[in-house]
Thiamine pyrophosphate-dependent enzyme, possible carboligase or decarboxylase
Amino acid sequence: MAMNGAQALIRTLVDADVDVCFTNPGTSEMHFVAALDDVPQIRGVLGLAEGVVTGAADGYGRIADKPAATLLHLGAGLSNGLANLHNARRANTPIVNIIGDHATYHKRFDAPLESDIEAVAGSLNGWMRRSSSTADIGTDTAAAIAAAQDAPGRVATLILPADVSWGEGGTPAATVPPTPPRTVASDVVRSVAEVLRSGEPVALLFGGRACRERGLRAVSRIAQATGAKPFAETFPARMERGAGLPNIERLGYLAEQVAYQLDGVRHVILAGARSPVSFFAYPGKASDLVPEGARVHTLAEPADDVITALEELADEVAADVEPELAPAQRPELPTGELTPQNWAQVIGALLPENAIISDETNTSGLLVPMATAGAPRHDVLTLTGGAIGQGMAVATGAAIAAPDRPVINLEADGSAVYNISSLWTQARENLNVTTVVLNNRAYAILRMELQRVGAESSGPKAKSLFDLSTPDLDFVSMAEGFGVPATRARTAEELADQFRRAVTTPGPHLIEAMVPPLL
């Protein structure tokens, strides 16, 4: 059967089990859009903005453990979606990132939407290729799919000129196996074991896939046997938590928190995580957060088989030791006006079984980990790259990846408005997402950072830039405008009642929780 380039591309995607495409397309991508009907095995999901598209692909990949495709319109569309691709890069999420471009013969005319796509996509430090002919599109697509899944996962960008898409003579290509995780040498495991046996204080910092059950159990065994301090990376792509799993603290966001957590440590062991650095530079403070004089030892890089390495290390130093598991327990339901403390207790008390939490609460969510430690098992997806605006979009993609699981989006008000049109996609696809927006009418985290960098904070102009109350944001009205039922809670009792109803009723819901700032 004769195919055009777009049909061959999509057939190659489907044959490699890439069966979801998040998109906000334009003229250059119309043959791809038309080909979606020719290959019914692929699901096209529309986002009203590119940040929704890229964030949803990130959330999908984190939960599905396989890539979705994106379809973006030229360099401008890529630029609009870049912030959430940055977060995906930091999360090592596999994404096949397809960028439509002008026809090859049209580019020399410098049309208004012409731009240097390679320059923009190059910032993602992933794989990139421009497909130059219809005959090659199947092979190029297969290479992109494999590259996206090369350990530990990355954004693979395939640039698709319009004439390559509409040209005849496309052929699907066979699936190409990705590069698997590298095996950690046994002598590396033994050398790290000697560090743990040294008797000197040790911190074990882990990340990536080690934040799931097998890794958590191995880390807990190591900590129990050796006294090492275990910490998960500050912003895990996906962390499994809850009753029956080890409850391991994450490394703090603030440099002062990390200094306290690592106080006295003489050795830092890295297992799939980067060496700790300050999130930002601060006058007179160190950027490197490894304690002075401490040595850093790498058990496994992010591209290594970190879980097997941790299990081998646990067998070496903790052969007969069992992990410490969190008991099943929930906080009591609070009463009274909502506070920065008690809203998290409501979530912990009522979190449904097997939930996925997309956490972009920022300052409002500092107590969520404590409140949910003994809740039923769940996954937490965090803001890996620090570019706010991912929470609603990531929740959307996670819900498509796991339609039988409840998705809970815990969302700060300032972050929510970045990609709030995610709600429209949730309504259109009838996704089981419950969004709780913590409305404290402020960029509270920026108020804190203004003080921490030593800038003058008393002036009215500065203060006004962190104030979201003039005018107030009405998330109930916004949600309803996008087709999502919404309510507002001012008390713990109201939040509990609304949350119960939302998570037991099919489809998306939003709750605006009126919470005062913590800071």
User: Anything to note?
Assistant: The mean pLDDT is 95. Residues 50-64 form the longest helix (15 residues). The first strand starts at residue 20 and ends at 23. DSSP finds 21 helices and 17 strands in the chain.
